[in-house]
Amino acid sequence: MSKKTQKTQNTKWNDLRTWIATGSWEASDSWGLTGTWQMEGASGTWDATRDTFGRPNPAPTPQPTTTATQEPAPTTPVSNVIELATGRRVDLGHWQHRLDELREEHDVPGATLAFVVDDEVQELASGVLNRQTGVEATTDSVFQLGSIAKVYTAALIMQLAESGDLDLDAPVVSVLPEFATIDPEATKVITTRMLLSHTSGLTCDFHLDTGRGDDSLAKYVEAAKGVAMDCPPGTAVSYSGIGYVVLGRIVEVLTGTTWDQALKDRLLTPLGLTHTMTLPEEVLPFRAAMGHLAGPEGEQMLAPAWDLMPRAAGPAARVCATAGDLVRLAKLHVDGGKAPDGTRLLGADSVAAMQHRETDVPDKWTVSADGWGLGWTLYDWDGVPGFGHDGASIGQYAYLRVVPGARVAVALLTNGGGSRLLYADLMRELLADLADVTMPTPFAPAENPPTVDITPWTGTYKREGVLITVTEKAGTPHLTYAFVDGMSGYSPDLEMDLVPLTDTVFAGAGGGASFTEDWMPVVFTTLPDGTKCAYIGMRAAPKTA
User: Fold this and answer.
1) Residue 247 to residue 342: CA distance in whole angstroms
2) Closest by alpha carbon to 115, among 441, 399, 381?
3) Per-residue model confidence as pLDDT tens digits over 100-139
4) Three-state SS for 160?
5) Is 514 annotated as catalytic?
6) pTM for the structure as a whole
7) Helix 348-355 and helix 323-334: axis angle, to 10°?
8) Which of 24, 43, 141, 147 is catalytic?
9) Where are the beta strands (DSSP E) in 232-346?
10) What is the 3-state secondary structure (H, E, C) of 339-407?
């Protein structure tokens, strides 16, 4: 295989891997004038030959993103040492150079980086927001945060619990009578705490656009009643977008306003987050990043649209912000719930509860999770606790990591290319320097993997929209990942050999992936009721045959 072909396959594999991990978008293996898309709250088709209103476009064909305005070249390291109020010295020139260097190495069009250390926010930017226009990325550029939106929703829920308006351990139906699932018994016992910690059994990939009206969340919750569940409530963790839309609806019912407005009133405005918003039209006054996806030869090309999220996806998947605003939100949690002016927005007990481990996770690699709290992903870096969240939208990827003991928070926002590789390299260096944290080595099988009998796990596993088939081919474990039901036809089946790490943990080899960050974790486990499950992308798919 040629180096060019290998790079193309790796890039495409990374696109699909990111979708599977986050449920945020899917890119097919090739570009054309028309295609399909799906996201954490919606799905559909795109047609580059026509505009939003169905009128023909004059020049629709996606073009390689080469422009007269080239991306800034990596900088030569220039010392720019600043002294913080505490006397600590930070070399911003070094980190600017590393951001520039690693961004280019991993073919990421643009990135912004912000970190809080000793209570001071530092912000850097590199590359371009759009390879076709050449608009430069700046620290005030707005990116889509994808699933990091869940953290904002969780904070609103905790405020309502503090005020006595909500009991986290009462059934959801006690505050939201219209809530229901396909299983009447499950409906009776699902609590808000379960929704926050992804232990409700509700699935993730139910895609529906319920319009732009203020009733979009109410309509979505109504439509989700008949969706199959991943597992019984309280028996396992299974990442759920539906659950967070339901939480957003709870916010609306208890505050008497929309989720978007509640977020502004109760968090964004008090924190002074002037570059954070939830609706596309609110992004227009700002410099906005455009996502990029892999083209036919692995080159980065503009995504077919800036944003494909319907309004109902907001509580689970749509907040837009700068990296600086994101770490300022994280600082609220580092500071025990107090805003910079001393206003208490969350009680210290609520902040601690959000970081308390509610559940372990079988898949500790897809989003680097060691466990889950009330909204936060939890990490354990050789005994050093941390929290954060990942997010993705169409060609944009966001990463937030917080080390509360060191009072350090780091946010990296990107718009395509090998974003996860950039994250892995840069975050590992930053956290080691700023917080004395050693991140784990990338997920990958051993050079000489153990011999494992796959027979106990062979069979068919199914969850909403996805069918997973595990077989053995010529003595090698093999997995087929197929989109079915309402997602049928969105992508060709994903075929991969499985390389064992243990008797329950395997690495999906996928379309020629060779980079260690590109192995996809596949984890098998058995639920308390004896049901076998396959975990891919933090989602539990029960065995059906």
Assistant:
1) 28
2) 399
3) 999 999 999 999 999 999 999 999 999 999 999 999 999 9
4) helix
5) no
6) 0.87
7) 110
8) 147
9) 276-277, 292-294, 300-302, 320-321
10) CCCCCECCCHHHHHHHHCCCEECCCCCCCCCCEECCCCEEEEECCEEEEEEEEEECCEEEEEEEEHHHC
